[in-house]
TrEMBL record, chain A:
One of its GO terms (cellular component) is mitochondrial membrane. Carrier of the growing fatty acid chain in fatty acid biosynthesis. This is Acyl carrier protein. The keyword Transit peptide applies. The lineage of its organism: Eukaryota, Metazoa, Chordata, Craniata, Vertebrata.
TrEMBL record, chain B:
This is LYR motif-containing protein 2. InterPro entries: Complex1_LYR_dom, Complex1_LYR_LYRM2. GO terms for cellular component: mitochondrion. Pfam families: Complex1_LYR.
């Protein structure tokens, strides 16, 4: 019932949006308008009704376009990246947490070797969820460089 | 007579390439171990890999290093094959 009322309201609001039929929109509105999709399961046999629901789905997309409802992670900032990087490094058993600073060099200041550096970069990959290629990974020798690289890849500006 | 000298710790090209290969294998091994389903197994394999690589860290003979690289590759392929079967 709510779906029918909603559809009648928005149909008058958004006529031109009927032409928009991209997959993205239907996916978005599938997340948004759960009630509509529940109803559509019952109605799927009737072709006229499914067209009606397509319209309502597409129009519903237009109404909700101002407030996005996708599931996504909170935005990254330099400070959050730095905190996370330092946190992961403090958890690493070969690093002395008191000696650790953003500018401490892994090999010169912290006495680690290249195998440890590989492990550290792998831990960063796990933490931030994206792969760092070999060529660039071997150049990252301080936490600050790691922060810069991640900010670069994730488009974090200040 | 001014003679330019490389720092004594500089590696020759072959040594440099071998070092890169070893680090690449270590990285691939860690990535493969990440896909192992059991957490305790993962920890055990990671420690094992770490010990193996660290034990031979100071080898200097290029032929010995090449043999070890081949061995590591075999281990890696075996691990990948078992993972593919287990999936």
């Amino acid at each position: 019932m709510a779906a029918r009322v909603l559809m009648q309201c928005v149909r008058s609001v958004a006529r031109p949006s009927l032409r928009l039929c991209s997959v993205n929109l239907t996916v978005r509105t599938a997340a948004v308008s759960n009630t509509v999709s529940h109803r559509s399961l019952c109605f799927s046999g009737d072709s006229r009704r499914t067209r009606w629901l397509e319209q309502s789905r597409v129009s519903a997309a237009n109404i909700d376009v101002s407030c996005r409802l996708y599931g996504d992670l909170p935005p990254l900032t330099f400070d959050t990246i730095r905190d996370r990087v330092l946190y992961v490094l403090k958890l690493y058993d070969k690093i002395n947490p008191e000696k650790l600073q953003a500018s401490s060099h892994f090999m010169k200041d912290l006495g680690l070797d290249s195998l440890d550096q590989v492990e550290i970069i792998m831990a960063m990959e796990d933490e931030f969820g994206f792969e760092i290629p070999d060529a660039e990974a071997e150049k990252l020798m301080t936490p600050e460089e790691i922060v810069q690289y991640i900010a670069d890849k994730k488009d974090v500006y200040e | 007579m001014a003679v330019t000298r490389l720092p004594t710790a500089a590696l020759s090209l072959k040594q440099f390439l071998q070092r890169q290969k070893v680090l690449g294998i270590y990285r691939n091994m860690l990535r493969t171990i990440r896909e192992v389903p059991d957490a305790a197994d993962q920890k055990y394999l990671r420690n094992w890999a770490r010990e193996e690589f660290k034990r031979n860290k100071n080898a200097t003979d290029p032929d010995a290093i090449r043999m070890m690289i081949t061995q590591a590759n075999n281990h890696l392929e075996e691990l990948q094959r078992s993972l593919a079967l287990a999936r």
